[in-house]
């Protein structure tokens, strides 16, 4: 019987590539040569070669096989085929039973492979044959395209590779980078644990691209040819095919230089892309060609409309196109893996088809009837239908919903009675899709036009109030209050306005009035049975419980709010600002893992549904969580990714109390004075804001800055206003943002000689801990503050112990440092372990300023050590650990999205890390970064 439709690939497919010398892979070849040298000394092993499609994996395997044969090593080569997985063990049998010196007993091995229940004996038999062959000299076993191997091949490969590690057998396996089947991932994990050497093939550098271009064209390339060559982005297969298709028709050689006298050529088909298209099913091929005609990125919904099918019906075709490495996921869109691939697919389409699909995709989204594009102003029936579609789409696709709502508005006469209600429906859709300024202008114009009935104005102001929450807490209160005070509104509208007013007051820090308004709103909501308003008001009640330090009640109401929203079918991840509160509450009370999980889920869902505003708000919230867990670099990256846009309405109050506060704290921990000063300037603006909570954050930020500058007196002067007889409306923590700030405030006060303020902070921390005995984090902060106030080692050591089970890295490091400082006064040797643990935590967080301070304490205790914190990689002193991880993954050829999936971060965060790495390393391209990584990590 036939083993498999598999070919032994000593030379990669493609005439031009076979004739082109291998360029730009000296480091990888040298690494393989080292393993072959070790094989010659009797040392076996495993080498895993990874890279994206077209990067040259097969070519590297062919070079390795040739090098092994040159040493007299027997080579067995096999490769999997995407259509050949139905033959058990096909690729491996093809390797060991074909070629010049096949293993003996071929028929028995084939019979065992196809007989049920014979896997054990197959492994034994194949293992015995390989051991026997290895006694006569070293063996190289090559397996290409591991991602397409059948389960039996995978099992046999990792079992024999590990089991025969003491024999002179080198296993060289290549696998496509990115998403692979779970069985392949398991195999890769197992061979990694077995000590496999890993080689990642990334894009070629500029020098290699230039040399390959010269190889293919027969002359050094001119600037225009090089610009064209760089469009391949260092992918050798695309580069060679692109150049080969132009060599005879477009490129000319004048004075020994290859040029393009007629200018850049039109896109054309490429052989490798055509082969991949041919391997697809008819449905997947049609989908890929349609996406190419659309151009750029495309949603599955648009493809479904163009193909006349449902989105669900395209799931298999989309997965097939992704697995073929033709398409890639880009947020909630699909994009071609490479622009040359898209152009090659499009070039294979007839011109009329390309033009028709392009026009169809560029036009307004289909809205259900052929006459939709011809509707005229005043067509109320069409406007009503568009509004109904917008309402149906709003929960899952706010972008198309916003376009339909805007179109309905265009069709509605300026003085039509339904126009204000359509404006109120459009505002939240525009805001959710990142068009807040347009939404605000639309609402303001409707209010300014006048002539509104009370019900219409109420709904307009409700929409504007919710819009303002992200940008201006005081404006949210103003709009909600104005709407609630309108005479003649229905109870349902008034109830929702009162609920929104309570939310705005609570976010502003007007807690006493928020509680009063919430009571009114609750009564109104109960009378009309408005469960949505009740869910919102449960969040306000949670905030009231938090303010009163009744955290059990705060959590109970937050969970009730989430349950009500869930029962209504509203995802709390998209329910804003209410949904954010639960994460902030969990973070502030030490339940950081829960907070991070909530934030991660919020970001994921918001991104999936294209909700720009929600994504930014969840990112802002996550910055607070990442800060407290000691992930300073990630917190800064999230803050930069979520930074307010230039056209945002209002000062950005949510950004004030999240990312701006976080950026100042990160700058202080890292000793970045310039950034700290920039955010201190923001804090001075915040101190005069209309919302008490924003003023409070600004005041605490300025106090921290003054303390950073060595001015504790100034720090306490900043805080006096919020610490003097805390009123009912002031935040419960009297000068603090977070319970872990209590020890910092005590230190400031003691340095300034303000024992009264230090005692006040300790009393508040202890009261909070007593009222909430189930939260060890609060007990830890109280013990820490008490130990500082009394200069008592006992509470400090207790704080260290209580912090051990809490993921608050910076708070724990601070307690360790303070306990060590107390011990160092009389028992220096006992202080050292505390300082060393604090140093390790600060270093892991990337808190350079804190690291330097603890080092000074260690030197004073008689400990001398080299200044090499654990967070710094010796080869990468400029980068944080997070930036180093991203740089290395990108140098392996991973996209930002792939790196994000690998690191469990958002693509925004990965992009921010990468930009910072480019700046710090003074590189301007991925190719330059790749060269630098190879030089530093591999000594190339």
Which key features would you list for this structure?
5-stranded parallel sheet; 9 strands; disordered N terminus; two-stranded antiparallel ribbon; 46 helices; globular; mainly alpha; 940 residues
List the SSEs and their pairings.
Elements: H1 15-19, H2 26-40, E1 45-51, H3 57-70, E2 74-79, H4 90-97, H5 106-114, H6 119-134, E3 139-144, H7 151-163, E4 169-176, H8 182-193, E5 197-200, H9 206-217, H10 223-229, H11 236-246, E6 252-254, E7 257-259, H12 271-278, H13 282-294, H14 300-307, H15 315-323, E8 327-330, E9 333-336, H16 339-347, H17 351-362, H18 380-393, H19 398-410, H20 419-432, H21 436-449, H22 454-468, H23 473-484, H24 491-508, H25 511-528, H26 531-547, H27 551-567, H28 578-588, H29 592-608, H30 612-628, H31 632-641, H32 653-670, H33 673-686, H34 692-708, H35 712-723, H36 741-751, H37 755-771, H38 776-790, H39 793-803, H40 809-824, H41 828-845, H42 848-860, H43 881-891, H44 896-903, H45 907-921, H46 926-938
Parallel strand pairs: 1-4, 1-5, 2-3, 3-4
Antiparallel strand pairs: 6-7, 8-9
């Amino acid at each position: 019987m036939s083993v498999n439709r598999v070919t032994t690939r000593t030379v990669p497919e493609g005439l031009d590539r076979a004739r082109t010398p291998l360029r730009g892979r000296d480091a990888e070849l040298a690494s393989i040569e080292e393993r072959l040298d070790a094989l010659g000394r009797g040392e076996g092993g495993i080498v895993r070669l990874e890279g994206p499609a077209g990067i040259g994996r097969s070519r590297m395997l062919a070079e390795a096989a040739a090098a092994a044969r040159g040493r007299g090593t027997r080579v067995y080569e096999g490769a999997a085929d995407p259509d050949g997985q139905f033959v058990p063990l096909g690729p491996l049998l093809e390797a060991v039973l074909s070629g010049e010196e096949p293993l003996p007993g071929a028929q028995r091995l084939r019979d065992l492979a196809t007989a049920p229940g014979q896997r054990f004996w197959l492994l034994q038999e194949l293992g015995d044959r390989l051991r026997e062959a290895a006694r006569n000299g070293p063996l190289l076993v090559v397996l290409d395209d591991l991602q397409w191997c059948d389960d039996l091949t995978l099992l046999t490969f990792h079992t024999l590779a590990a089991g025969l590690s003491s024999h002179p057998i080198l296993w060289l396996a290549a696998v496509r980078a990115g998403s692979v089947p779970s069985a392949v991932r398991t195999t890769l994990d197992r061979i990694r644990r077995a000590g496999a050497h890993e080689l990642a093939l990334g894009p070629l550098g500029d020098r290699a691209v230039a040399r390959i271009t010269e190889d293919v064209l027969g002359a050094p390339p001119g600037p225009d040819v090089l610009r064209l060559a760089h469009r391949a982005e260092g992918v050798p297969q695309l580069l060679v095919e692109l150049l080969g298709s132009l060599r005879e028709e477009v490129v000319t050689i004048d004075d020994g230089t290859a040029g393009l006298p007629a200018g850049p050529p039109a896109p054309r088909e490429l052989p490798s892309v055509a082969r991949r298209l041919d391997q697809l099913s008819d449905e997947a091929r049609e989908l890929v060609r349609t996406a190419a005609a659309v151009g750029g990125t495309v949603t599955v919904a648009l493809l479904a409309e163009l193909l006349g099918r449902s989105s669900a019906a395209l799931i298999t075709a989309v997965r097939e196109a992704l697995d073929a490495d033709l398409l890639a996921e880009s947020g909630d869109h699909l994009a071609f893996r490479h622009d040359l691939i898209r152009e090659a697919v499009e070039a294979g389409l007839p011109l009329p088809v390309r033009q028709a699909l392009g026009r169809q995709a560029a036009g307004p989204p289909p809205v259900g009837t052929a006459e939709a594009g011809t509707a005229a102003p005043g067509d109320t029936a069409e406007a009503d239908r568009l509004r109904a579609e917008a309402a149906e789409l709003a929960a899952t696709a706010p972008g198309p919903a916003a376009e339909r709502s805007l179109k309905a508005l265009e069709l509605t006469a300026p003085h039509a009675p339904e126009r204000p209600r359509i404006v109120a429906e459009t505002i939240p859709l525009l805001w959710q899709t990142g068009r807040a300024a347009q939404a605000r202008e639309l609402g303001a114009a409707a209010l300014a036009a006048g002539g509104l009935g009370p019900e219409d104005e109420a709904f307009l102001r409700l929409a504007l109030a919710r819009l303002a929450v992200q940008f201006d807490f005081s404006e949210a209160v103003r709009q909600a209050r104005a709407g609630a005070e309108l005479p003649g509104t229905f109870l349902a509208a008034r109830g929702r306005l009162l609920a929104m007013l309570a939310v705005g007051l609570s976010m502003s820090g007007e807690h006493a009035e928020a509680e009063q308004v919430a009571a009114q709103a609750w009564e109104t909501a109960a009378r009309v049975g408005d469960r949505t308003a009740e869910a919102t008001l449960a969040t306000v009640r949670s905030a009231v419980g938090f303010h009163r330090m009744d955290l059990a009640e705060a959590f109970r109401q937050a969970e009730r709010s989430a349950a009500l929203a869930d029962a209504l079918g509203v995802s709390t991840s998209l329910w804003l600002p209410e949904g954010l509160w639960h994460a902030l509450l969990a973070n502030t009370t030490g339940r950081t893992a829960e907070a991070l999980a909530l934030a991660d889920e919020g970001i994921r869902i918001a991104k999936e549904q294209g909700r720009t505003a929600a994504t930014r708000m969840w990112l802002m919230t996550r910055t607070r969580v990442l800060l407290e867990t000691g992930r300073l670099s990630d917190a800064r990256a999230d803050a930069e990714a979520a930074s307010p846009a230039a056209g945002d309405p209002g000062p950005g109050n949510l950004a004030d109390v999240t990312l701006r506060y976080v950026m100042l704290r990160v700058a202080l921990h890292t000793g970045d004075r310039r950034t700290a000063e920039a955010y201190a300037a923001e804090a001075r603006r915040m101190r005069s804001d209309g919302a008490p909570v924003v003023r409070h954050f600004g005041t605490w930020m300025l106090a921290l800055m003054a303390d950073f500058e060595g001015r504790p007196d100034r720090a306490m002067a900043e805080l006096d206003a919020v610490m003097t007889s805390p009123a009912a409306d002031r935040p419960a923590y009297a000068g603090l943002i977070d319970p872990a700030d209590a020890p910092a405030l005590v230190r400031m006060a003691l340095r300034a000689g303000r024992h009264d303020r230090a005692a006040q902070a300790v009393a508040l921390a202890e009261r909070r801990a007593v009222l909430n005995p189930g939260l060890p984090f609060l007990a830890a902060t109280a013990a820490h503050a008490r130990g500082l106030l009394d200069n008592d080692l006992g509470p400090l050591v207790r704080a260290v112990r209580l912090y051990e089970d809490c993921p608050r890295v910076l708070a724990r490091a601070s307690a360790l440092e303070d306990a060590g400082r107390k011990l160092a006064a009389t028992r220096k040797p006992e202080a050292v372990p505390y300082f060393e643990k604090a140093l390790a935590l600060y270093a892991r967080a990337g808190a350079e300023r804190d690291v330097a301070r603890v080092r000074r304490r260690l030197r004073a205790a008689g400990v001398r050590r080299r200044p090499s914190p654990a967070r710094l990689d010796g080869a990468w002193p400029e980068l944080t650990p997070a930036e180093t991880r991203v740089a290395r993954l990108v140098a392996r050829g991973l996209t930002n999205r792939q790196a994000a999936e690998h690191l469990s971060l958002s693509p925004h965060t990965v992009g921010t890390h990468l930009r910072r790495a480019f700046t710090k390393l003074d590189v301007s391209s991925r190719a330059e970064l790749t060269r630098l990584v190879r030089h530093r990590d591999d000594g190339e």
